[in-house]
Amino acid sequence: MNASKPDESHPPLESIAAEPLLTTDYEKRPAALYERLRSQYGPVAPVEVYGLPVWLVIGYPQVLEVMRDPRGIWSKRLSSWRAYGEGRVPADWPMLPIYTSDNSVLRDGAELNRLRSAWSMGLRPFQDRTRPQAKELERAVARYADDLITLIGEGGPTGRADLSVQYARPLPLVIVNRLLGFDTAQGDELIRDMWQVLDSGPDAAAALARVTGAVAEVCAARMAAPADDLPSHMLAAVPDLTVEELARELTMVIALLGDHTATLIGTTAVEVIGGHDRMRESLSAGMLTEVVNRAAIAGPPMAGTTLRWPRTDVRMGRFLIAAGDPVMLSPAAAHTDPAFAGGVDPDAIYSSRAHLAWGAGAHACLGRELAGTVVTIAVDRLFKRFSGLRLAAAPEELGWQASPLSRSLRSLPVFYEMAPDDGARRPVGPPPEQVGGADGPEQGPGRPAAELSLVQRVLRAFRRG
């Protein structure tokens, strides 16, 4: 990849007949799509994302180099997008709210370092397993996971369930609720709003505004009275954060932890249940971290990254990418590149740690340890509490939902068999997360409404959605 002066022999991005990225192949058969694009274009391909042309980087070495950006060529600032500055990005472009959110994802340099310092120090109590907050969070994750599995088991010792809707997706939202310090009295509507935002439904913009407002209220409250939660620890690390800055940062937790972690839980479950021998062997050997690592390679939760823009013309593969052109990196495609996959021994005990599921460079995920802990515990509880799990649909019929940034399971139907003596009949939900005033069939037999737990509220929000 070389920086160079403009070369008229290379057609500009806008003149290339780019094919849409969001196709059936992208949703159902992404590996085949990446192979075809690589064969046709090389390590970078012109694609169309919601009507706009974008360079999609699919080569492993190229994705890694752009992420690391050793020469400072790449910008994450919206002002670097030439088409946006020229008014050629429609105001209703579906992804535009991401790029106008003005959080650390869209920052560089000193501003980025300041905000990442808040993240790094704020997350430390919850990621450092020697700290009491991390230990308590791990116990809470296991407790929430058991509550969700118990709710499934209340349908009988054997039956059918949707592990995406009833387990993988609700669990991280409960963790988000805990980390952000939301008062349980804020109730079902806020959790439902998070779900609307993640699914990019017709009410997503209004839901995001409500969630952002609720996060801002928590941030303002923590400035006056700190607590033992993520907003308070971020403020302690960088005291000059404003309410607006902190709220913009923390709103990202819903997507980064709430959605990406759910994606990895679901992907890991499919890889194990779907009959991948190495995954089952690793699980049987107690190598949970390895199971999750293999799943992260097979289906990275961040299938694509937010856009970057080169500050100067850059030659990549057969194309010259002009300064200000939008560039999207694809970790999912990079993992299928022979430059990465060709060097992986399928019979090795351990898989490669050189994958890009958590990014690299200045924008690498700072919460990977927390996300890994949540996924590992979730997978552990799932396969300990169920003695048998079988897919209730063919792998190609599973409910995948794809966006430019992710490819996640929205439906994972299974036939289950509860493990004997697994405690599935115990009451759901520990104090202090009991809430009252709820209705409906989500109550267990004979359980008063006042004992409904947070996990039940999350499931009710999903069902109503």
From TrEMBL:
Annotated region (Disordered), positions in chain: 420-449
InterPro entries: Cyt_P450_B, Cyt_P450_CS, Cyt_P450_sf
Protein family membership: Belongs to the cytochrome P450 family.
Protein name per the record: Cytochrome P450
Originating organism: Actinomadura vinacea
